[in-house]
Amino acid sequence: MTGLATSTGTPYAAILGVGAYRPVRSVPNAEIVEAIDSSDEWIQQRSGIKSRRIAGPDETVQAMSVAAARVALERAGVDARQIDCVVVATVSHMMQTPAIATAIAYELGTDDAAAFDISAACAGFCHGVAMASDFVRGGSARHVLVIGVERLSDITDPTDRGTAFIFADGAGAVVVGPSDTPGIGPVVWGSQGEHFDHIRQVEDWREVIASEKPSMPHLTMQGNAVFRWAAFSMAKVGREALDRAGVSVDDLDCFVPHQANMRIIDALARSMKLPATVKIARDIAEMGNTSAASVPLALDRMIADGEAKSGDTALLIAFGAGLAYAAQVVVIP
Ligand SMILES: CC(C)(COP(=O)(O)OP(=O)(O)OC[C@H]1O[C@@H](n2cnc3c(N)ncnc32)[C@H](O)[C@@H]1OP(=O)(O)O)[C@@H](O)C(=O)NCCC(=O)NCCS
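Above are the sequence and the coenzyme A SMILES. Below is the predicted complex in structure-token form.
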């Protein structure tokens, strides 16, 4: 028997365009404090969050994704028909199957692109970028659309003091495609399932249905344990991603961590010993924690504000439920 033919891609992949969609309604701390017996001052001091965007009825997971993707496609100069694969990272598409990626691929006008969702919570977008890079380099796809999208307001209990002020809504997207030079460094990723319970849906669907008064299951989080894990363990992951990309902290231009908590962002920057020249994404102040959408939203904001310039290197790192994490260095398009 002769060997099978295999696919061959391009030597390098890069992010070609970034897009975002921010829900119209901005909700300041003052609007949510009563239900959780908190204060604007406490929330800002403990998390750095001043306000967050909350999606309206028409700002669905699909609608926000399509809006962010259209911007990313336009900025990349890539037509929807050139997209071979759509990867959607989300935990808030409220239908078990089919994947929302299929509806998004169709609405965008792709030519029957492969489309599927991935569930890696807040780390999902960086998982998607790693996969897209390998698809392009391996020849499974030439252009891949990676979307991070959440409507966490649907699965957040507004009376839960540990989560109500943190979680929010939005969408971000990137187009990954071939490049003449390396644009996406090796991924450093992993999971620690022994901490499965640290952030989770409070009940599984069967438990919900079996309960006397079924209601939407919300997210629950052991905030303190998650804080310690993220602040102490993720610096090592970030450093490893820099090492594997061959980029020193002195060569790094931007740091775009998952927007979980401003204190975690500061702790990571300190323990990674990032020099003052590295620009740090702080989108959380106005966006809250948008899980899978947080890194592309923060990246989009840095580009829009002129903090991240074309050709700059940026360290992306994302972490969350699982506990799962992923990090890589990318070049700003
Ligand atoms: C949620 C978080 C801000 C809570 O801060 P914390 O310092 O751990 O707070 P604790 O739960 O230890 O509570 C400290 C005190 O604040 C009080 N408190 C808790 N939530 C409060 C709230 N929303 N408003 C006011 N007070 C609150 C507690 O009752 C406690 O009071 P006490 O000292 O009198 O007992 C913090 O744990 C955190 O940010 N964790 C990581 C969250 C995160 O990033 N998640 C996403 C990862 S993907």
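The mean pLDDT is 97.
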